[in-house]
């Protein structure tokens, strides 16, 4: 089996203090340290097996780094690298190992699927410990800023105009390159590199490639939408106002307290008694109202049953959501969108003890 870097977090240093002596007993690093010991990291171990090469960092150390970083709100690879060198809690968790940001980023990208699956393992551990009873679950969402600027997004109509302008610009530069090459061939001889294009040509070509790729994404999304709606995908038309972001095409422009930003919509459902997260997702759908039914289904799939009660804010209020909650037998408390509730909302305002939706207006 391939060896790892030594990983012994409890090893004392030949110094006046042991790291655990200067870490608060309430620091979540202690919990993370023990949780990673219980996780099944077999898939990561198997992927790291090799006969040659520099020993990798221990999977428990790297997974613990990701989990503890999330607890501390630290996600960037460079900030995690800094913490491993300067933060006592991280130094203890990593047993003094100092992976650079390239290693941290590569590990996260390579094992993204396995890291996402660890959520279910942690949830199962909480269930075994009796922390998840699903008596009352609270659901809420928040807009998480994408690592992309909304100014890097472009509408489909502007893409078509910009594409034509860039094509003309590149054509002009090709013609200029051929003219200059001919002059230099005559001056320096045919052995010179007369086929190279001007350096400034590379940037417009890259921009054109990005625009064409973004157009293709929007056109594919339009075809997929038409197919879902039972229309002919070949006749799908992209709206002139449809947008795609060049930096992070999966993110969407969403309304936030700070105005419209390039974001994702992150959802979590929390057991009200134990404060354990029992379901989570990150989606491209801006309105919370579209996420209640998928989150309810995920709660049931991950925990084996529906919650007895569920509370949510006005962003989740809709007749379809009330019907789904009623069908699942969930007694729910959902804030109303406006003082005057609809007839359907009023009919759900006085539910049976076992199910229904109570609307606060």
Descriptive notes:
The structure is a single chain. The chain has 361 residues and is an alpha/beta fold. It has three domains: 19-129, no CATH class; 150-245, no CATH class; 252-360, no CATH class. 44% of the residues lie in helices and 15% in strands. The protein has twelve helices and nine strands. The chain has helices at residues 29-38, 42-47, 59-71, 77-86, 88-93, 101-110, 112-128, 156-188, 202-228, 292-303, 319-327, 343-347; strands at residues 136-145, 153-155, 243-245, 252-256, 259-271, 277-283, 309-312, 331-335, 356-360. The strands form two sheets. Strands 1, 4, 5, 6, 7, 8 and 9 form a seven-stranded mixed beta sheet that branches. The radius of gyration is 27 Å and the shape is flat. The chain starts with 28 loop residues before the first helix and ends with a strand. Mean pLDDT is 78; it is low at 192-198 and 341-361.
**Using DSSP, what is the number of strands?**
9
Radius of gyration: 27 Å
Q: Could you list the spans in which at least 5 consecutive residues all have pLDDT below 50?
A: 192-198, 341-361
Query: Biggest sheet, in brief?
Result: 7 strands, mixed
Write down the overall mean pLDDT: 78
Order of helices and strands: HHHHHHHEEHHEEEEHEHEHE
Number of helices: 12
What percentage of residues falls in helices of 4 or more residues?
Answer: 40-55%
The shape is: flat
Overall structural class, as computed from helix and strand content, comes to alpha/beta
What proportion of the residues form beta strands (DSSP E)?
15-25%
How far from one another are the termini?
63 Å
- Count of spatially separate domains: 3
């Amino acid at each position: 089996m391939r060896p790892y870097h030594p990983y012994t977090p409890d090893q004392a240093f030949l110094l006046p203090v042991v790291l655990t002596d200067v870490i608060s007993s309430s620091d979540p690093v202690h919990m993370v340290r023990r949780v990673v010991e219980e996780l099944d990291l077999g898939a990561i171990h198997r992927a790291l097996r090799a006969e040659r090469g520099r020993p990798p960092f221990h999977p428990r150390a790297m997974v613990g780094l990701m989990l503890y970083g999330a607890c501390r709100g630290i996600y960037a690879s460079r900030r995690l690298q800094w913490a491993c060198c300067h933060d006592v809690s991280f130094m203890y968790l990593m047993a003094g190992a100092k992976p650079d940001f390239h290693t941290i980023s590569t590990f996260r990208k390579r094992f993204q699927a396995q890291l996402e699956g660890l959520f279910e393992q942690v949830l199962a551990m909480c269930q075994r410990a009796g922390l998840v009873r699903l008596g009352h679950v609270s659901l809420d969402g928040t807009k998480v800023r994408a690592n992309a600027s909304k100014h890097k997004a472009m509408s489909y109509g502007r893409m078509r105009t910009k594409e034509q302008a860039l094509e003309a610009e590149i054509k002009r530069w090709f013609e200029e390159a051929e003219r200059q090459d001919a002059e230099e061939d005559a001056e320096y001889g045919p052995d010179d590199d007369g086929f190279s294009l001007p350096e400034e040509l590379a940037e417009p070509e890259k921009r054109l490639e990005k625009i064409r790729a973004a157009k293709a994404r929007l056109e594919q999304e339009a075809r997929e939408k038409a197919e879902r709606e039972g229309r002919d995908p070949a006749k799908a038309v992209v709206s002139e106002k449809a947008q795609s972001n060049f930096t992070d095409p999966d993110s969407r422009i969403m309304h936030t307290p700070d105005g419209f930003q390039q974001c994702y919509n992150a959802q979590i459902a929390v057991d009200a008694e134990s404060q354990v997260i029992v379901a989570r997702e990150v989606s491209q759908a801006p309105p919370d109202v579209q996420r209640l039914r998928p989150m309810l289904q995920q709660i049931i799939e991950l925990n084996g049953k529906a919650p007895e009660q569920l509370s949510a804010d006005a962003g989740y209020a809709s007749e379809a959501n009330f019907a789904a909650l009623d069908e699942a037998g969930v007694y729910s408390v959902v804030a109303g969108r406006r003082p005057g509730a609809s007839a359907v909302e009023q009919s759900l305002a006085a539910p049976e003890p076992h199910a229904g939706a109570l609307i606060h207006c």
